[in-house]
Specification:
This protein has ten helices and 18 strands. It is an alpha/beta fold. The structure holds adenosine-5'-triphosphate and magnesium ion.
Length: about 425
């Protein structure tokens, strides 16, 4: 079913003037004849997209990429310099923190002010004010000026008003970043509810898991340009991949950052440690479910019989996730001498998104005498892959319905 297009953005460009001469004194400013020099900064550069009725669409991208500017254009708070937008339906927007609130007015007064800006009559607001206050959970504070509100309280009231004006299209910017856990859940539930009612929702968020879950589609802005659009999960993945790539290039020198302790008698030394992916590339960031090879170079100054190599993984907050060695795994290395390398191969990395540190060790066969022990010396970053469970690691398992007599029938007996 091809839906009706309710938002049409066509080649939108938006610039802001960035004034070059800063720190002018008041006098200098007042005495100026010519106008200040400025540079046009393009926050949006030719963005086009369409949204069909009933779609929930996410806008993602790094800080300053133009997401909020795009929302403000949709809300008609900003006008594009070039291009056009077309909106079919009643819009309600919860934009940046406190936008639309008057600091000296109380929460109640601001509700009336905001409601009327969003197109409600006084009588309609009278009807809804109790719901709005109840949703915001701010009844104790509703008659205080909003300038005394915390940022979370602002968002509570803003969201409560925005959803209670019966919009066809709801625009929300980063609500989930500010509210506390319980309010975030409440907002998410409300968004799901509105989504089920067939409302069109545009969400700007850095909470990528939430975008993946709640949005049908997403667009990714980078420096004001639309880099990708399509199915939300797909766009979020591409964006994460790009972020990881950038992090990776920053991380290369980080190899031994968290230098833990090192000890051992030194007849065998671990001289290099690398994390390799399935195509033998060295990386520090892996996705859950990927192949990860820990390769250790060693150098033995004499012949060593039956050395035992080991690897341990700790989470950054100190939990010992796993520790194993070649002997536990039933692999005996008869003897080593000189230089070589050993590989510890994980075919399917079960660790979930998070930061980990890896220890690499080589011991004698009794596992009592350390030749070389690098304790928690190597950083490993895991980003969410297709296996995106919650927690520390993925347990391979499956789900199914099990045929059993319905409980009701059993009760009859
Ligand atoms: N009123 C303004 N005057 C000057 N520059 C502005 C103005 N509003 C936004 N910009 C600039 O436009 C760019 C895009 O800003 P925008 O707020 O849209 O980014 P964003 O993607 O919402 O970022 P964030 O994730 O940090 O919220 C930024 O470089 C910002 O400095
Ligand atoms: Mg923003």
């Amino acid at each position: 079913m091809a839906g009706k297009v309710v938002i049409r953005v066509d080649d939108v460009w938006k610039n802001f003037k960035i004034y070059q001469e800063r720190n002018l004194s008041l006098k200098e400013t007042l005495l100026r004849r010519r106008r200040a020099k400025y540079e046009a900064f393009w926050a949006l550069k030719g963005v086009s997209f369409e949204v069909e009725e009933g779609t929930t669409i996410g806008i993602i991208g790094e800080n300053g990429s133009g997401k909020s500017s795009m929302l403000k254009i949709l809300a008609k708070i900003l006008r594009p310099n070039k291009g056009s937008i077309e909106i079919n339906g009643k819009i309600s927007a919860l934009l940046e923190l406190g936008a639309g609130f008057h600091p000296d007015l109380t929460g109640r007064e601001n509700t009336y002010l905001n409601g009327s800006i969003l197109g409600l009559t006084r009588a309609q607001i009278d009807e809804r004010i109790d719901d709005i206050i109840a949703f915001s959970e701010l009844s104790k504070f509703i008659d205080m000026p909003v300038k005394s509100y915390s940022s979370g309280m602002y968002v509570r009231l803003g969201f409560a008003v925005a959803i209670n004006v019966d919009p066809d299209i709801l625009l929300v910017d980063e609500i989930l970043a500010v509210g506390d856990e319980s309010f975030q859940r409440k907002c998410l539930n409300k968004l799901y509810e509105l989504k089920e009612q067939g409302k069109t929702i545009v969400v700007v968020s850095h909470a990528l898991d939430q975008v993946r879950n709640i949005c049908d589609e997403a667009i990714w802005l980078e420096h004001g340009v639309m880099k990708e659009s399509g199915r939300a999960a797909q766009v979020v993945d591409s964006y994460l991949e790009e972020v990881n790539r950038q992090e990776e290039s920053k991380a290369t020198e980080l190899e031994e950052v968290e230098h833990g302790a090192r000890w051992g008698s030194g007849e065998v030394k671990i001289t290099g440690v690398r994390f390799l992916d399935d195509v033998e590339n060295e990386r520090h960031i892996f996705k859950t479910g990927e192949r990860l090879v820990v390769e250790m170079d060693y150098e033995a100054s004499e012949e060593i019989a039956r050395p035992v190599f080991g690897v341990a993984i700790h989470s950054r907050d100190g939990v010992h996730i796993t520790g194993t060695n070649s002997k536990f795994s039933g692999t005996i290395f008869d003897k080593i001498a000189g230089k070589g390398s050993v590989r510890y191969v994980i075919e399917l990395l079960p660790l979930l998104k998070g930061s980990y540190v890896v220890s690499t060790v080589v011991y004698d066969f009794s596992c009592l005498h350390p030749y070389d022990h690098h304790d928690r010396a190597y950083m490993l970053e895991v980003s969410s892959g297709e296996l995106s469970d919650y927690g520390v690691f993925h347990i391979p398992a499956s789900w199914g319905l099990h045929d059993r007599q319905p409980i009701r029938e059993l009760e009859k007996d």
